[in-house]
Amino acid sequence: MIKNSPLLLLFLLLVSCEKHSFDIINLNNDEIQVLGHGGMGIHSLLPMNCVASVENCLGAGTAGTELDVQMTKDGVLVAFHDEDLAENTNAVGRIHDLNWSEIEGTVYSDLLLFSAHELVRIEDLLTEVDDLRDYVLSFDCKLYTDAENSNDYYEDFSNAISDLQEQYQLNLYIESQSPEFLALMKQKNPLAKLFYYPETFEEALELVLDLDLFGISISTEDINAAQVDLAHENGIWVALWNVHTRERNIEAIEKNPDIIQGDKLNHLLSLLD
Predict the structure, then answer these.
(1) CA dihedral 251, 254, 256, 260 (to 10 degrees)
(2) Which of 66, 123, 139, 256 is such that its CA lies 20 to 30 A from the CA of 262?
(3) Are 160 and 182 in contact (CB under 8 A)?
(4) Do the domain assignments include residue 101?
C-alpha cells in the first residue's frame, strides 16, 4: 500500500527533519531581520548587486538587501563588490579611478560569456526597483583607495551617502572595515546606524563601544552565541553574513542575531516563517 511505501516514509522523514523551532531573543523585538546578500546571494545565477538580483530578493519576502557600494572618481555611488572590474565584468580598472561615463554600460561576466546584466548606480537601483526605498538597505562600503588619498576620499564618500540618504529618506545601515570612515559618518549623522566589520569579535566590541556605533557586521564563523549575547547586553546589534548553506542558516538563527544577510534566502525565510 502507498502508506507503507519506503519512498513515502523517506520523504516524510526528510520533511520532518526540516522542521525547527527557534526561541529567538534579540534587540530587534525578538525577530531576525533577513536581508539578501547583494540581492539573491552568491549561489544565484544572477550577478550580485544587479537590478534583477535585488528584485528577486525582495520578491522572495526579505526585509531588504545588503549592497556593496563603491564610489567613482566623479562621486557616483555604484553597486559592485570586487576591487577591480576585471574580476567580474567586461571592463577593467578600479571604480574609484574611473568616472561613471567611462564604466556606464559595463556588463557582468557569466562564466566565460557576458550577461545582459549591467553595473548599476545606487541611485538607479532606488528609482528602477519598485518600492526599494521602503525596504531596509545595508551599504557595505568598499573603500578601495590609496592611503595618501584616504582622508579626502572618505570625506567625499561619506558626503555622497549622506546626500543620498537625505534625498531618499532611506532605512539604511552602513557597514565598513574602517574605524576612521565610521567615525566620520558618526560625526556627520550621530543617529546613523553604523556597523563595524571586524577581524575578530573582541576587536569589534571594543571599537563599537568606544565609537558608540550601532552594531557589528561579522562572519558567522567568527562569532558564537555567547558573544552575540554579550553584544546585546551592551546594546549592540549583530548582523551575520557568510551564511551560505542550509546548515549555516540553522546555526546562524540559533545564535540569535538581529540581522542575517543570507545567500540561501528561500530556505532561511522558510525556517523563520
Answers:
(1) 30
(2) 123
(3) no
(4) no
